[in-house]
Amino acid sequence: MAEIVAMKAAPEGPVTSIAKDGVLRLTLSNPPANALSLAVMAELQAEFDRARDDKAVRVIVLAAEGKVFCAGHDLKEMTAHRADADRGRAFFEQTMAACSQLMQTIVRHPKPVIAEVAGLATAAGCQLVASCDLAIASSEATFCTPGVNIGLFCSTPMVALSRNVSRKQAMEMLLTGETIDATTAREFGLVNRVVPPEYLNQIVSKYAQAIASKSPLTLKIGKEAFYEQAEMGLPEAYEYASRVMVENMLARDAEEGIGAFIEKRKPEWTGE
């Protein structure tokens, strides 16, 4: 596969973008909080939308600059709109709609998304981690849903959180607002692995390259099927998954992959 020419957002942009060897790396670049303002969410949404139909991109890594992965919504931006005639209702609705769209875009995106978490992920930042398909965290990373501490329950982060960890563990985080360390986050199921800070980027890159080497069609089929069946009852899930398996078996990439396995050679994917 040809190497993709590196791309970067403008220096003043809230998100930087670099693509190489099938991996698109999106970095939140508005420290110290890397807050999800409307501008940041719009830029992230645009990057994910562009990557959807870019055949050169097979995996997306979501990272951040600084000591905070993401502090959630920009509370200063939201508070400023309390001076509006409607006390901020329209702006709050716009913010929540943009956030919900972004999180669902990540879950429904045809490309696998890996969160690389080096620092604090709080509130909607924790939601962002939970929405990604995989999450690799530094041993120094921390996580929390602290809205309850300021009179604002983390209701939308709750959606992603409760689909990753058990109900008791989700409620523990949501009701106490306390911060958990990376090891606890792994035990809860919020992250896949916890690694030394100095090896975080290297290990995430290893995961990304391993996934990027697979058939892009198979990744798309599998990711979509995983989230679809998860919302179904057992009989419906097996019926649905069986249909998906048959269609996947008929794909050219499956024919090539099985043939390559039998012939003991490296497969050549076409995405068909």
Description:
It is built from 11 helices and 10 strands. The protein has helices at 38-52, 75-80, 89-108, 124-131, 155-161, 167-176, 182-188, 200-212, 216-230, 234-249, 252-262, and strands at 15-20, 23-28, 59-64, 68-70, 113-117, 120-122, 134-138, 142-144, 180-181, 193-195. β1 (15-20) and β2 form a beta hairpin. With 272 residues, the protein is α/β, with parallel strands linked by helices. 47% of the residues lie in helices and 15% in strands. The chain has a 6-stranded mixed sheet, with helices on both faces. Strands 4-6-8-9 form a 4-stranded mixed sheet. α3 (89-108) runs parallel beside α4 (124-131).
Topology diagram in text:
Blueprint: E1 15-20, E2 23-28, H1 38-52, E3 59-64, E4 68-70, H2 75-80, H3 89-108, E5 113-117, E6 120-122, H4 124-131, E7 134-138, E8 142-144, H5 155-161, H6 167-176, E9 180-181, H7 182-188, E10 193-195, H8 200-212, H9 216-230, H10 234-249, H11 252-262
Features:
four-stranded mixed β-sheet, 11 helices, alpha/beta, 10 strands, single chain, six-stranded mixed β-sheet, disordered N terminus, globular, 272 residues
Radius of gyration: 20 Å
Residue share in helices?
40-55%
Biggest beta sheet summary: 6 strands, mixed
Number of strands: 10
What general outline do the C-alpha atoms trace?
Answer: globular
